Amino acid sequence: MKPVSLTRITRAPIVERDLVERDLAILDVAGSDIDASTGTTAKFTRVSRLTSASDFDRVFRESRRSVDGMFTVLYRANNLGYPRLGLAIAKKRIRRAVGRNRLKRLIRESFRDVQPQLNGLDIVVLARDKVGAAPNEEVFASLAQHWRNLATHLNTSDQH
């Protein structure tokens, strides 16, 4: 068998001016809360998540609740100045992985939109039975009500 020759693909040289403009744009975004790809403040980075078991345990032990037919939302102050989200979507509530992943995506998207109003809270969202069959609009409406409850609690506790 004859070896196949691979032709080398050459790229156009990068003009220094282009490089500098691109780097400046990245630097402008890097120091702010603006997502470079979308131009919005909505992002969900690792620091926005509860990552350790001890973080989850602390919320489960020392939390307040917001409850409706779809979700139980547990929350507590974290003294960090930014909100963190943890998800506990039980297989018992939503059997199929596709459904659990859909729900997690919807919760994260909803959380990204309200992050600035929830500063200083650790939040854990637990799914309840009704959420599995609910359409996206109802899920978003339920979460919006929970976020309003949390923001109201945050504002009233700041005044005291």
Q: What would you note in describing this structure?
A:
The chain folds into two domains: 12-41; 46-159, 2-Layer Sandwich (Ribosomal Protein S5, domain 2), CATH 3.30.230. 41% of the residues lie in helices and 14% in strands. It has a four-stranded mixed beta sheet, with helices on both faces. The chain has four helices and four strands; from the N terminus they run ααβββαβα. Helix 3 crosses helix 4 (136-159). With 160 residues, it is an alpha+beta fold.
| Lateral strand order in the biggest sheet | 1-2-4-3
Low-confidence stretches: 6-40
State the separation between the terminal residues, measured CA to CA. Answer: 81 Å
Task: List the domain count as a whole number.
Answer: 2
| Number of separate helices | 4
Strand content: 5-15%
Q: What sequence of helices (H) and strands (E) makes up the elements?
A: HHEEEHEH
Described by strand count, sense and barrel closure, the largest sheet is: 4 strands, mixed
Structural class: alpha+beta
Computed CA radius of gyration, to the nearest angstrom: 22 Å
- Tally of DSSP β-strands: 4
* Rounded mean pLDDT score: 79
The best one-word shape is: globular
CATH class label of the largest domain = Alpha Beta
Query: CATH architecture of the largest domain, please?
Result: 2-Layer Sandwich
Percent range for helical residues? 40-55%
CATH topology of the largest domain: Ribosomal Protein S5, domain 2
